[in-house]
Every structure is written in structure tokens, then in C-alpha cells.
Amino acid sequence: MLDTLTAALREVLPADAVITDPVRLRTYECDGLTYHRATPGVVVLPDTAEQVASVVRLCNEFAVPFVARGSGTGLSGGALPREDGVLVVTSRMRRVLEVDLPNRRAVVEPGVTNLAITEAVRDRGYYYAPDPSSQQICSIGGNVAENSGGAHCLKYGFTVNHVEACEIVTPDGDLVTLDRMDPGYDLLGAFIGSEGTLGIATKITVRLSRAPESVTTVLAAFENIEQGGRAVSAIIGAGIVPAAIEMMDALAIEAAEAAVACDYPRGAGAVLIVELDGPSAEVELQFARLKEICAGAFELRVAASQEERAAIWKGRKSAFAAVGRISPAYIVQDGVVPRTALPRVLAEIDRLSAEHRIRVANVFHAGDGNLHPLVLFDDTEPGAGERAETVSGAILDLCIEHGGSITGEHGVGVDKARYMPRMFTDDDLDTMQLVRCAFDPRGLSNPGKVFPTPRLCGEVPGVRKGVHPLVESGKAEQF
Ligand SMILES: Cc1cc2nc3c(=O)[nH]c(=O)nc-3n(C[C@H](O)[C@H](O)[C@H](O)COP(=O)(O)OP(=O)(O)OC[C@H]3O[C@@H](n4cnc5c(N)ncnc54)[C@H](O)[C@@H]3O)c2cc1C
């Protein structure tokens, strides 16, 4: 079936846009979550939305699944390809189509990198606010699919707050536009964060923000993480909403130091990076209050220039990759807890780490309670990988127990699908599947992601037996 489909794909795409060479296919076998791998059946590199639509229509004709891929930096295996399917890579769709400053909007293709949007408007005093640490390489299409966050999302909101419209190819190959201004159901809201399961974004209208008049970046070094945690609560409690509050513990600092020599204060048990932005007068007032709140810090550094600001951020932005310097293997975990639960959850993570003899480095968007524990292990040591997995799963349980969630920004993908039943009942999951069915009744768009055991839409590995309670009660319709 795939061979016949490949021949048909060659009819609608340029010759160099269809990859079947086994060596080149391996380039795409995983995303940032490298321990899930699959060689895609075929890879296509469309150049236009119409070509994406043609590919999806052919996939429908041959009943072959397809997976969208942007830059492949996802950390939950969302872009993991299918061996029996087509991987639709958007890396050739990299045009900034329109910049409309009076309306503070830009229209871009899905393969445009997050940072390229800001670079297109920076000279004119604007920027695109959501800033994942991967912003130099991740695509805006991937950001939409994951509803990505970043350090500055505490004050400015996630991707969903900065996307005005999306042109998408629906799972059956229609090209439609979902616009925030559309009356009726918020279909754009449903699409953002749907991890490629509701179709492929081919054009995205983003909101541009005005660059703030003043920015003050502060690094506060504390003896231990509890003191840092208390400072975070006190800052928010004082009514200050910084653009960003990030925290790193001693192990994460050690890794960043080894990788990028960020020169954070020696002996710090935790560093807090706080960025204040806005009108100068407001930033000055907030900074004065911040200094009082951080009086317990043994060192307070304030960036005096753009270079010093970049130096403070360097350690934090490189933290995930940096742990490779202190550990042969690691799992990047992503969970959320209410801010006030941070100290208790961090203490529990410490306990789990000691109990299972697995080191955990903590890096987090402290302002919104989004933890990124980096679970370190030696993959040559028998049983270490399993212990790391146990700790990693137990951290997610902690997040749920404390009223949080199993993902803050990296998505569910293939990695966390098995944890979904810990947060949701079967009925909850079936109801989500009904939404999916409305877009993708044949289950061809990124199947096997997000949901643990899909039981509707006929998606493998099994079909739900009997009628769903919501359908039975007349509240929902099954296609
Ligand atoms: C070092 C590092 C730091 C990171 N920091 C952050 C961070 O601070 N915040 C954060 O939120 N994430 C972060 N991430 C995770 C990752 O960068 C984001 O999830 C990003 O949005 C993925 O974009 P991508 O283009 O690489 O998408 P991919 O990995 O290619 O795909 C991700 C998902 O999006 C789907 N998809 C891709 N393109 C489209 C499209 N056009 N239409 C529909 N679906 C599509 C895929 O099917 C997949 O499910 C980080 C990753 C790394 C490696």
C-alpha cells in the first residue's frame, strides 16, 4: 500500500520532496525524546499548503496514517513517525508571509522558527512573546501543536494566547481556516495543543507584542532551594508579576557551569532569575520591592547591559542539554503543581532521588509551578534506566496528588499517554476522543499519541465495544 501511495506522492510533489532512501529516512526516526524510535515509511517535504493538502488526501485514499513534524525538538515523542505511514515535514515552509504592525499581527508558514518571528520585527520594536528555550530551532507549527510555553509565559501567556488564526489541512485533506473571531465553538482553541491529532497547520497568524520600555534582569543566589521557593511565593504575594521567574538547583547549576561556564555564584544551593519588564517607573518600583524580598540571598546580580542579561540567561537556557555533561543519560520530565506546593513537592523529589539512588536536577519555571526535573542515570548500569523511569513516573504522581498536571508544556505525545488514566477517567478520555473523531473520524492524523488505549474512531489497538454513554444519552454524536 505504501509503495502505491509513494508513487502517487511523486505525482503531486517535486522529485526531491519525497524521501524513501533508508539512510535519509533515519534522520527522522525520533524527536527530542530519543528513546522512542521508528523509521518512517516515507518522508515528504511539501513547500505549500496545497501540497500538504494533496498529501493528506492521498493518505486518506490509501488509508495510510500521517504524522506532522516541524523541527523535531519535541520532548514527548509527538513527532515519532509511523513505519506504516507518511511523515509530513514542514521545514521547507519557512516564509514570513505578512507583517501587519498596525494590527500587531504576522502571518507565517508553519516551519518558521519561533525566534525568526521576533527577528523579523525586532528592529521595529516588536517581538513574539512565547519563548521556549528551544526557540532558535523549534517551529511555530510545533509550538501551536504543543501549545508551547517558555520563561516569559508567566506574564504573557502561552502560545494559545498569541495565535489569532490557523489555516489547517483537516485530517481528510480540506484546507480551512480557524479564526479566533469565528462565532460558535472555539475550534482554534481545540486545535492549539492537539499535538498533530486534529490536522496539520499550514499558515499561522500570530499576535505581536510591543517590546517593553524597560527590562531589569536579576540573578539571586540562595543557600538552598527552600529559601528560593519562599522568595518566589513572596514575589507573587507582593502583587508583582515578573516577565519570568526561573529557578535552578545546585545540580542543574553544576551542569550549566560545566557546559557553558555561566559563572553563577559559587556555592549556591539555588539560583533564581527574575526578569521585570514594562514602563520604566513601574519596573523601578518593582525592583525596589524585589530587593527587599530577596534580602536573604547571599548574592544579587543585576544585569547592567544586554550582554550581562544574556549571560544570566545563558545557564538557564542551556540547562537541558547541559546535563549531558554530568550524566550519560537523562529523562527530561515536565509536570505542574500549584506554586504554593513547590517546596513540598521538591522535598518529595529529594526523597525519591535518595530512595532509588537516582540523581535529579531541578530546573523550573517557578512562577507558574512548571517543574522540569532532569532524572539522571547511567544507561550502562543494569537496572538504572528502570529506576530512573520509576522516579520519573513517581514525580508525575506527585504532581497529580498536589493538584497539578502530568505536563506543563511538553505535551503528552507517546511518552505520557500511559499516564493519562491517572488524571482522567475512562469517560473523560472517551469524551476527548469524541472531539478527535469530529475532526478525524478515521484516526489517520498522528494516531497512537496522547490517548492510552484509543477506543473510538476504530484506531488501533482496539475498538470500543458498545455505545459510548454520551452517545447513548443523546449528548454527543458518534461518526
Ligand atoms: C533544549 C530544549 C528546550 C526546550 N524548551 C522548551 C520550553 O521552554 N518550553 C516548551 O514548551 N517546550 C520546550 N521544548 C520542547 C519543544 O521545543 C517544543 O515542544 C516545540 O514546540 C516543538 O516544536 P518542533 O517544531 O520541534 O515540533 P516537533 O517536535 O517536530 O513536533 C511536535 C508536535 O507537533 C506536531 N506538529 C509539528 N508541526 C505541526 C504542524 N504544522 N501542524 C500540526 N502539528 C504539528 C507533531 O506532530 C508533534 O506532535 C524544548 C525542547 C528542547 C530540545
TrEMBL record:
Record's keyword terms, sorted: FAD, Flavoprotein, Oxidoreductase
Note the Pfam families from the entry.
FAD-oxidase_C, FAD_binding_4
Required cofactor names: FAD
> Which Gene3D superfamilies does its entry note?
3.30.465.10, 3.30.70.2740, Vanillyl-alcohol Oxidase, Chain A, domain 4
InterPro entries of this UniProt entry? Answer: FAD-bd_oxidored_4_C, FAD-bd_PCMH, FAD-bd_PCMH-like_sf, FAD-bd_PCMH_sub2, FAD-linked_Oxase-like_C, FAD-linked_OxidoTrans_Type4, Oxid_FAD_bind_N, Vanillyl_alc_oxidase_C-sub2
Which superkingdom does the taxonomy of this entry point to?
Answer: Bacteria
| PROSITE patterns referenced in this protein's UniProt entry, alphabetically | FAD_PCMH (PS51387)
Q: Outline the extent of the FAD-binding PCMH-type domain.
A: 36-211
Q: What is this protein called?
A: FAD-binding protein
Q: What is the lineage of its organism?
A: Bacteria, Bacillati, Actinomycetota, Actinomycetes, Streptosporangiales
